[in-house]
Design a protein that fits this description.
By secondary structure, this protein is an alpha+beta fold. It is built from 8 helices and 9 strands. A 5-stranded mixed sheet has the order 1-2-3-5-4, with helices on both faces. Strands 7-6-8-9 form a 4-stranded antiparallel sheet. It is globular.
């Protein structure tokens, strides 16, 4: 079996992070998983949802929004606002992003604030939800570093880094980090979210008009664990360099799209 892009079964696509692409956000990054590219930003609002105030819940809140821009796919995708409502897929993905990132944040240390994670897909080639979680965590860590440097936080709220990757069974073989042709034709599709301590946050998996064995599931989870370990190393490097990086310019963004 040969993958469409020639990668070994356990190899990730090229992954990169360009920080500070949205200067008005508290933290931001352009994350690329191969040809999938997502701008992830973290914006901090000095307020909490009404339900938290009514119930006198301590600490802050984190929520996420996810959107595929009209030109992110081969055929133009209408904006949600043109239909008057958020489509079911986008709603499900942004809830996943929120759950994944809340799992690694001590919201009491955030104070009476809301963390808005916005994920805007510029180009989709499979794995947009996993790229959004991975980039969202980096954007959030950059934002927390900014607040710590400004003296607005007394303690760092991020408990552990979290990242996500896809795995699947393609032409009878378990593979890691599916691109669009693989995602389209896979018999089984998994999305795995884990912390830097190899703890599971969430697993989404199903057969596409197919079934899968326990051996195949174990293989996909092991591929995901290995992949996420590599991704988290890249996240750490991106977070460390973000404070020293100037705001991204058009030249660096153009270079990212030429890779």
């Amino acid at each position: 079996m040969t993958r469409p892009d020639g990668r070994p079964n356990d190899q990730l696509r090229p992954i990169s992070f360009i920080p500070n692409v949205a200067p008005y956000a508290t933290g931001s990054v352009l994350v690329s998983f191969g040809d999938t590219r997502v701008i992830c930003s973290a914006t901090i609002e000095d307020d909490v949802p009404r339900w938290m105030r009514a119930q006198r819940v301590e600490g802050g809140w984190l929520t996420a929004e996810y959107s595929m821009l009209p030109y992110s796919t081969l055929e133009r995708k209408p904006r949600d606002i043109s239909r008057g409502k958020l489509d079911g897929r986008s709603s499900e993905i942004q809830r996943l992003i929120g759950r994944a990132l809340r799992a690694c944040v001590d919201l009491k240390k955030v104070g009476q604030r809301t963390i808005w994670i916005d994920c805007d897909v510029l180009q989709a080639d499979g794995g947009t939800r996993t790229a959004s979680i991975t980039g969202g965590c980096v954007a959030m860590a950059i934002a927390f570093n900014q607040l710590m440097a400004a003296g607005k936080l007394k303690q760092f709220p991020l408990k552990k880094l979290v990242a996500a990757v896809s795995a699947g069974v393609y032409q009878g073989v378990p593979i890691l980090d599916l691109n669009y042709p693989e995602d389209r034709d896979a018999a089984v599709d998994f999305n795995v979210v884990m912390t830097e301590a190899s703890e599971f946050v969430e697993i989404q998996g199903s057969g596409e008009e197919a079934v899968f064995s326990s051996e195949e599931m174990t293989a996909m989870l092991e591929l995901s664990r290995k992949g996420i370990s590599d991704i988290i190393s890249l996240q750490k490097a991106a977070i460390l360099t973000a404070d020293r990086a100037a705001p991204a310019d058009l030249a660096s963004l153009a270079a990212a799209f030429r890779k």
